[in-house]
Amino acid sequence: MDDRIRVCFVSFMFAPLVGGAEVQAERQARQLQAFGHEVMIVTLKHYKGWKRRETLKGLPVTRVGGGFYRKDGRLRVGKFGHVPLDIAMFQTLWRLRHSYDVIHCLQLSPLAGVATLIGRLTHKPVIICIPSTGPGKQPEEADAILMADTLTDTSFLKVDYQDTVEGDIANLPRSALGGRAILNFLRHSDTFYQILSSRSYSYLTSHGFSAEHIVHVPNGIDTDKFRPDPERRPNPKLPERDILGVARLQI
Fold first, then answer.
1. Rounded to the nearest 5°, which phi and psi values hold at 124?
2. How many CA atoms does the CB half-sphere of 221 hold within 13 Å?
3. Fewer CB within 10 Å, N or C, the chain?
4. DSSP bridge pairs for 59
5. How confident is the model at residue 137 (pLDDT cuts 50, 70, 90)?
6. Quick one: which H or E segment has residue 185?
7. Could you say which DSSP state residue 78 is in?
8. Least confident of 61-65, 66-70, 201-205
9. How many CB atoms lie within 10 A of CB 197?
10. What is the pTM of this model?
11. Do residues 7 and 37 lie in contact, with contact meaning Cβ atoms separated by under 8 Å?
């Protein structure tokens, strides 16, 4: 096919680890493969015993090490530990630069800065997915509040801000050495940002990101699998609602 492209997915974590970004990266990659495009996954080697290169059911995966490992074999990733990993990721993406046409980075981590730098040096487009906007209130306020929608009693939705996880942009300067510099570099780059909700648009623009580079592409939901059960549906005339919370436990 003449319009076939070669996509490099950069994911902070990937299989065999299980999580939202990991699943999203794999599903998007396999769908692009089904359309006839060439896809590769470049991720971190989170455990010392993992293979650096392997093919998972037709999907090529490259794992980048270069950091320090704990006694249990797990990769040290923290505010300072990301620096050698960023260098190793840069070297890997540079070495593979003739094997892809576009970089799609999942989540706003220091790796997004590395991908953007590689994109600038190689004149290749870069897309960064930003899924998290954090709670609805600012850090100086005591509580955050979950989405209330049509509920009449919202007191139980209030959460102490210290128990919440900040959005991707607010979290980067706190979690990574040089995080503010990385954000500033991203703001002035030609990178495109994929957002999953309309709320994310105002979140990015309020932090200085160019509106022209923001693209709203929401995650798809299998409505044949996830749909209301008419037999268990509450009376719509009553104010009560059944709420399904999908969250991430991070230690």
1. -115, 145
2. 5
3. C
4. 56
5. very low
6. helix 179-187
7. S
8. 66-70
9. 12
10. 0.78
11. yes
One-letter amino acid for residue 48 of the chain: K
Q: What tokens does 39 get?
A: 């896809």
β-pair partners for 103: 8, 126
52/64 Cα distance (integer angstroms):
7
Closest CA to 20 of 194, 176, 219, 216: 219
Using alpha carbons, select from 115, 110, 232 the residue that is nearest to residue 173: 110
Residue 54 carries which side chain, given as an amino acid letter? E
The residue ranking higher by pLDDT, 66 or 181, is 181
Rounded mean pLDDT of 45-68? Answer: 92
Burial of 44 (0-12, 13-18, 19+ CB in 10 A): buried
**Strands annotated E in the chain:** 6-11, 38-44, 53-56, 59-64, 102-106, 126-130, 143-145, 158-160, 192-195, 214-216
